[in-house]
Amino acid sequence: MPRLSARKGFMYLAGVATFFFLAINVHHLAILPITITIQGIEVADDVTQKNSNFIPFAYDGSTMAPLNTKIPEPHERPWYMKEGELLPEKQLPGERTVKVYPEEKTNYDRIPDQLMFYPESVPENSEDSGTPLKKILLWNGASSWGGIRPGRGVFLKEKCPVNSCVIASNKHEVDSANLVVFKDHFTMPGFDRPPKQLWMMYMLECPLHTQLFKHKEVFNWTATYRSDSTIVAPYERWQYYNDNVRTVKNERNFAANKTKKVAWFVSNCGAKNGRLDYARKLGEHIGVDIYGACGPKRCPQNSNRCFEMLNSDYKFYLAFENSNCKDYITEKFYVNGLGHDVLPIVMGAKPQDYEIRAPYKSYIHVDDFDGPEALAEFLHKLDNNDELYNEYFQWKGTGEFVNTKFFCRLCTMLHDDKVREEEKSYYKDINEWWRGDGTCIKGSWKAFDRAVAKRNENNKTIIHDTKKQEDS
Asked: Which among 368, 344, 338 has a CA at the least distance from the CA of 263?
């Protein structure tokens, strides 16, 4: 074996050390959020399990290079984004690669996967009059679906890549339906579900405001805001133009001319998650203006002036849900909060749920603080420092809220020939899935997690003591 010179030996050892350093730090970078500035664009490396394909750096053998941070042109974006033209490619026979069912992909919601899915069994020319169409029956009628009418209109209007489907609303057509959709409420029809027909339960509200199902085993699919639904139907869906770019420099001062602190528009004063009590306690330490039935201030509910105040007068907005439930994030956050030039303070879903669904550093979660007083102290800090406050608006311009094309995805999924495992092909107990232990809580998620951890530790102790007694 030839001997290495001192210089080459040093370079060899340095290379080995660099390799291990990178291996350790790539793992470390996948956990801790940092920001890398490249050509004026800040790349927020906070992506962990939210994007399993994310790699912080590419190594070419001699230098480290950042991943692609190019913002694609509008026409280079997926077809469901504004001005997007990128269409899904048809799956090759026997090579189905897109993961569209909950058991196939457990992280996040699979919405982009379903939107970019084009099954191999889709008819070649859907415009031909003889093309077989998948029939979707809206069991509760079409009137509650906001302008949806029987026929193919919705699939053509939405420019669905897969449009060989038809909407029906007459219950007499049930025998020829491929999918029957029950919306918001379910009463068992006077017949059992045919073996080759799919039944879906669509629910917009959270478990605390929906029925307990008497027939718990009749559904194949679900459509809710929950990320483990078959067809996820969120209130809004944020998508980055480039997953590697989470912030951009913004010269605007979003704190300029704002003289008021916290606003809240609310009409339901009896929410079980304690949001009203929290808001009142917060008001003891910082100015909180409560508009509506639960506070002293008034503003016409349908007046644009109400929300215009969030753009011009207030720095913070309480985007408090009426229930603390898994994945439950509504228009209170997306529209009232992120839709205006104000920093939302959130209560509702778990902190992890917001982290996955919201733009990077666009909100404040109450569970990140020990209580209203600690939160108020932090808000005062932001109020007195425009630079810190403006950091919460650097997500603007990095992506958009997309139309999730619900009926397009339904049509696409109905053309998928994949045979699911029997245990995954229907819900054995939709009540357990929808409202099982830990789905909704009354207090904070932080306190709940501590209680669960303590209970698990106690259970381990009991098992250990029992085993010890048995061994003795």
From this structure: 344
236 catalytic residue (yes or no): no
The structure's pTM equals 0.83
User: Quick check: 137 and 174 in contact, CB under 8 A?
Assistant: yes
The Cα 283–Cα 372 span in angstroms is: 8
If you count them, how many residues does the chain have?
A: 472
Chain position carrying tokens 């026979």: 93
Tell how strand 324-325 and strand 440-441 pair up: antiparallel
Residue 366 to residue 346: CA distance in whole angstroms: 6
Tokens 């974006």 appear where? 77
Among candidate residues 76, 104, 158, 205, the one labeled active-site is: 205
- pLDDT of the residue at 254: 98
pLDDT at residue 28 is higher than 80: no
Coil, helix or strand at residue 433: helix
Strand residue runs (E) in 233-281: 238-240, 247-248, 260-265
Nearest to 90 by CA among 160, 40, 27, 161: 161
The pLDDT score that the predictor gives to residue 126 is 72
Tell me if 378 sits within 8 A of 358, measured CB to CB: no
Distance separating alpha carbons of residues 246 and 244, to the nearest angstrom:
6
3-state secondary structure 119-168: CCCCCCCCCCCCCCCEEEEECCCCHHHCCCCCECHHHHHCCCCCCCEEEE
